[in-house]
Amino acid sequence: MRAQISFSTLMLLPALAITSSCAPSNIPATPIASKAAPSDAAMRGRAFAQAHCASCHAIADGTSPHADAPAFADVINQPDLSEKTLNPWLRNSHNFPQIMNFEIQADHIDDLAAHMLTLKDPKHKPRI
Question: pLDDT tens-digit profile of 79-90?
Answer without folding.
Answer: 888 888 999 888
